[in-house]
Write a structure and sequence with these properties.
Actin-like; Nucleotidyltransferase, domain 5; 12 strands; Actin_CS; 2 domains; two-stranded antiparallel ribbon; Actin; Actin, Chain A, domain 4
């Protein structure tokens, strides 16, 4: 418990309810497309229905790993910006001509972080979710998207840029993973809602709040709407308008909750925890 390791006088856990506070709603389903997992969390009157929380490992890290696998197959050398001292302009698909910086003392963790930032830049600008069910013939005639890597190498991407995010909606596109091993995002939402009481389900379908960095993929929200309409579900999907709000909705909601005049009635004081132990966490936060 945090009281044991840090100097805290009060504490409160509420998880994905922070997103509902940021959206000014107390009832709805939060689809949190996070880094490690994508999670569907039904919230009713400000309380999480824990029995109906559903999760899949198809998160941002998965998308980055699939992008890394694609670039490795294409023999694209991933050289982060900080390693490039100078570079020359080259034609498309020509080998990069650049000079690396002579750097010492760079930690492995920093190298991994900067490589991840490069992959994130690539996925943000190149990957796109197709707006309907994946159709390779239709996608093959769409414009290709070019991307220049920090070392100057540049190429364009066609159907590959749709295949990676398609796995979020159709696990059959997964590389090296059995498609039945995990739920796609649409079935994740429907499974979570169907585990709730029947009289609450319509309120969840009409209040789906989408947050998380993975939801920023181009076409993600449009594809969600298409899939639910195709399945004849009456849904209303909302998402914060800016990238920052979508990434940090939990923090924004936490700041709103913390500013309420009644918040002091909700938190756990150090004295309460010392008197009752972990039971107080389940009583106040679950």
């Amino acid at each position: 418990m945090k009281f044991h390791n840090t100097v805290l006088f009060c504490l409160y856990f509420i998880q994905n309810c922070f997103v509902s506070f940021a959206s000014s709603r107390t009832t709805g389903l939060v689809l949190d497309c996070g880094a490690v997992h994508t999670t569907a969390v039904p919230i009713h009157d400000g309380y999480i229905l824990n029995k109906a929380v559903a999760q899949t490992p198809l998160g941002g890290e998965f998308v980055l790993s699939q992008a890394k696998q694609l670039l490795d197959e294409l023999n694209v050398e991933l050289v982060p910006y900080y390693q490039v001292k100078s570079k020359e302009s080259v034609k498309q698909n020509e080998p990069a001509r650049f000079i690396k910086k002579d750097l010492n003392g760079i930690t492995d963790s920093y190298k991994r972080f900067m490589t991840k930032e490069l992959l994130l830049d690539f996925t943000t600008h190149v990957l796109q979710v197709y707006d309907t069910t994946y159709n390779e013939h239709e996608i093959s005639v769409l414009p290709r998207i070019g991307f220049e890597f920090p070392n100057g190498f540049n190429t364009d991407f066609g159907e590959q840029r749709f295949k990676i995010p398609e796995a979020l909606f159709n696990p059959a596109f997964l590389k090296g993973v059995h498609p039945n091993a995990m739920l796609d995002v649409v079935h994740l939402v429907t499974s979570s809602i169907n585990m709730c009481d029947a009289e609450l389900r319509s309120s969840f379908f009409s209040n789906i709040m989408v947050v998380g960095g993975n939801s920023l993929l181009i076409g993600f929200i449009d594809r969600l709407n298409y899939e639910f309409n195709h399945m004849n579900y009456k849904t209303k999907i909302s998402a914060p308008p800016s990238a920052a709000e979508r990434r940090f909705s939990s923090w924004i909601g936490g700041s709103i909750l913390g500013s309420l005049g009644t918040f002091h009635q909700m938190w756990i004081s150090k004295q309460e925890y010392e008197e009752t132990g972990r039971v107080i966490v389940e009583k106040k936060c679950v």
